[in-house]
Amino acid sequence: MTPYALLVAPFAEFEFMRRALVGVFALSLGAGPVGVFLMLRRMSLTGDAMAHAILPGAAIGFLVAGLDLAAMTIGGLAAGLLVAVGAGVVARATEIKEDASMAAFYLVSLALGVMIVSLKGSNVDLLHVLFGTVLGLDDPTLLLVAGIASLTLVTLAFIWRPLVLECVDPSFLASVSRSGGLSHIVFLALVVMNLVGGFHALGTLLSVGLMMLPAATARFWVRDLTALVVVATGIAFVAGIVGLLISYHAGAPSGPAIILVAGAGYAVSVIFGPAGGVLSRLLPRRHLEA
Amino acid sequence: MNPQLRFHDLTLGYERHPAVHHLNGVVETGALLAVCGPNGAGKSTLMKAISGALRPLHGSIERGGLDPRDIAYLPQSAEIDRSFPISVYDMVSMGLWRRAGLFGGIGKADRARIAEAISAVGLEGFENRPIGTLSGGQMQRTLFARLLLQDARLILLDEPFTALDAKTMSDLLDLVRRWHGEKRTVLAVLHDFDLVRAHFPETLLLARTPVAWGPTAEALAPENLLKARRMGEAWDERATVCEDAA
Lengths: 290, 246
Description:
A: mainly alpha; 13 helices; 0% strand; B: six-stranded mixed beta sheet; 33% helix
């Protein structure tokens, strides 16, 4: 097979592949940076919990209007924000810690979502909601995903400084500015938005994968914050392209293919990554003079 | 001259139990004041309250018209995430927050000031080092550089020299003296009485209630230190409502 047939032809010949390509590009632009901050704030599992939490919202949208973009998006956004706020309130108002309350919320959400979709629709519908259809992105969905990516980048530019400062030295930020709490809430909203954008392409369960895997992978190669964001975004996009190609040539489901490629990248990085990977620890280079 | 700080019957504490009890007094603008006292005497609590992070249980603090956010405050153990990938340069430049805020550009003049602050604490060459690679002393130098940039009229230092070697301590002490020379008001919580006697003209000896406040030699007189040491640390679970406040 020529390189052209392997790498370019699928996109050149089929419109659904080109749409999928645009979709994963937009997803990467939003999810890459958001994932890096989730990781640095030690909130990786929070992202996962919120991804699960979106399911019942999307399912209720599905219940009301079928496989309708607007209804499922609004349902997902509402449910995600509700769980983010609800878990926060439970953690602050009771003696339970935030991670435990997150776990409680998302387990209930997941069960509820599967229940709703199963009662109303077929197994195919359930699979669609759980694992998405990156190869079936229509114009409105693409516009939504691209819109979310654009909004994410602009918003991140707005809250970049307080967000960074809130991670590094929260008490200093509190002593010079009141923007810490607000930037945290805005950031949580960004997480939910990107998960909702991702769920149309990758499903509720896997959308968080394009957020966390590239961020965790990038951490094994670079240490600087800006570099982390750029590299994570790049990794997400490359994983998207390779995943789409594998899914095309092998006839495999595209969403899981994309996340598995990202996972393979992560596995390689754990071993070979120069910034704290296994090999760099087992085989340290000789120490320097000063 | 207007005083920088005025305490009116100030009582501070947690869950109604006082940690600082009925403090009255004035810190003149440009004062260099050491705050001494045993552990649990309310020194850090006082710093927190002046910085605006803690509301008084009773009484009030006048800050000479200063917004609490314009006060530079170095807490005893800052909750800094040392693993966060940020460089010394960026960490120091946060001192410009009140001027630059969310978007304000960092221009040529600002860069010069950042470079000046970094060199003033002796960290030239460390600009691009991630903060995770710094030693304890280098981290404290970084935080002092950030304080320099904050350019505050009132500076609060909570045990700034703890666990530092002699060289680092004397370098940072030079900065404190420089601030004093620039007529800034500096309050520092300190445990080293020799250091206080040598460099701080005025001392507040605190043991929940103020034991002595005045010229350092008098405030740290043996009878005052003895009095301070007798202060009970434990809070009384069955303490009744303080009637002095009425």
